[in-house]
């Protein structure tokens, strides 16, 4: 991604210091200093809350049918038994909004300017981190699903009709517990360049590993520019499967 494109991308998702702090967020923060750090496409906000050297993150967003922070909290509590993910401190909702407060993990997002300037290191960390996540989370006993049938049903509940060509998945390569939103920003990278954890786990569930690999590889172009997809797949430890990559990219874009 060239500097101008990256700046525009950051501007889209980074709220400015003038961002109003919702009353609920202020109450959750207590006396902590608040800094807005992320804005999503539906008006949700994430704030960093710092107090006496302790850092928390407060997510606050309108309720939607696509996912919920209650579901994310449940998934993080389960995943934390096996792999580094944020520790849930509290969560809740009212008629219109929901919120989730977590403890900070070490590391910076893989789209922090430091790593955008070092895309080779970033994509290797994302690929290796995704493989480690898949290897660590046990499919047997996982109570969550992210399979094609469930994703299509969720889309239908939101009024989205998925093309018939995407309603049947390719033969499964390997079932894993997928992240569910393996885009580059959701891998954290330590100062040594190795992955240090994963965030935003609201869709975590069992699916073919290519459902995650395809999204992670696709996101490299958004965040680092063309040409990094295969490097991420190599860091994951497999050869590119073009048919599965194409299918799961199309499914992601359709749902």
TrEMBL record:
<dbReference type="Pfam" id="PF01636">
    <property type="entry name" value="APH"/>
</dbReference>
<keyword id="KW-0046">Antibiotic resistance</keyword>
<dbReference type="InterPro" id="IPR051678">
    <property type="entry name" value="AGP_Transferase"/>
</dbReference>
<keyword id="KW-0479">Metal-binding</keyword>
<feature type="domain" description="Aminoglycoside phosphotransferase">
    <location>
        <begin position="59"/>
        <end position="246"/>
    </location>
</feature>
<keyword id="KW-0808">Transferase</keyword>
<dbReference type="InterPro" id="IPR011009">
    <property type="entry name" value="Kinase-like_dom_sf"/>
</dbReference>
<dbReference type="InterPro" id="IPR024165">
    <property type="entry name" value="Kan/Strep_kinase"/>
</dbReference>
<dbReference type="GO" id="GO:0016301">
    <property type="term" value="F:kinase activity"/>
</dbReference>
<feature type="binding site">
    <location>
        <position position="200"/>
    </location>
    <ligand>
        <name>Mg(2+)</name>
    </ligand>
</feature>
<keyword id="KW-0460">Magnesium</keyword>
<dbReference type="GO" id="GO:0005524">
    <property type="term" value="F:ATP binding"/>
</dbReference>
<dbReference type="InterPro" id="IPR002575">
    <property type="entry name" value="Aminoglycoside_PTrfase"/>
</dbReference>
<keyword id="KW-0418">Kinase</keyword>
<keyword id="KW-0547">Nucleotide-binding</keyword>
<protein>
    <submittedName>
        <fullName>Aminoglycoside 3'-phosphotransferase</fullName>
    </submittedName>
</protein>
<comment type="similarity">
    <text>Belongs to the aminoglycoside phosphotransferase family.</text>
</comment>
<feature type="active site" description="Proton acceptor">
    <location>
        <position position="181"/>
    </location>
</feature>
<dbReference type="GO" id="GO:0046872">
    <property type="term" value="F:metal ion binding"/>
</dbReference>
<dbReference type="GO" id="GO:0016773">
    <property type="term" value="F:phosphotransferase activity, alcohol group as acceptor"/>
</dbReference>
<dbReference type="GO" id="GO:0046677">
    <property type="term" value="P:response to antibiotic"/>
</dbReference>
<feature type="binding site">
    <location>
        <position position="186"/>
    </location>
    <ligand>
        <name>Mg(2+)</name>
    </ligand>
</feature>
<keyword id="KW-0067">ATP-binding</keyword>
